[in-house]
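COURSE: Structural Biology Practicum
ASSIGNMENT: Worksheet 4, Part C
STUDENT ID: 0417
INSTRUCTIONS: Below are two proteins. For each, the amino acid sequence is given first, followed by its structure token string. Answer the questions at the end about the second protein only.

PROTEIN I
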Amino acid sequence: MSRSPGSERGQAAVELLGALPALLALTLVVFQLLAVGYSAVLAATAAEAGALALGAGADPRAGVRESLPGWSRAGARITVSGGAIRVRMRPPSPIEAVARRFEVMGEAAVEGL
């Protein structure tokens, strides 16, 4: 019994369709990890900006808000305790249930306050 040369036509398309959900899930996981990392950097930078503003005698909350991009300002929670500034925020996520589970925090302090 010999096979004709065209008997496996379309096999690559079927395999691609089978692998597509796994590729999509992997893409979402990678995107979420990048978003968490980027948000952690934003929170740390914003906390440092708030500490610099506090050290200069200005409003630390305004310093934090000015350093954040527009999409993240509304969701940032800022805590000022003595000379310490904490910024907590949730990274963006295309899946709301995942977004509620992640939270990143940045912290900076001014010595002597």
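PROTEIN II
(use this one for the questions)
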Amino acid sequence: MQVAALTSTLPAADPARFADRLNQMSPVEQRHVVAQQFEAILLRQLLAPALQTMPGAGNGIYSYMLTDAFAQKLSAGHGMGLAGMLERQFTPRGETAASGSSPSSASVAQ
């Protein structure tokens, strides 16, 4: 059985390390990663109450991990569409957004 990685844009456990990797990326890649992470945070906030209503769902760490995994997966790739809109909003005037294309080195996982 093959198990795919959870997501390629998970932040490192150490926020400073994640920030260092983010600072090494181009501005286009930074916008892409930040937009995806923001979308994941918003999805996590929306999914948490819904997943707590499931039978057997507790309030412990496993419930948080399940919610986080769903949010990261839903926001990966093209996501729900919010990341693309945010990326266009983050793009300065006169510069074209990388709409629909995910940067090749956007992988910031450990």
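ANSWER KEY EXCERPT:
Q1: Residues 42 and 71 are 8 Å apart (CA to CA).
Q2: Confidence is low (pLDDT under 50) at residues 1-10, 99-110.
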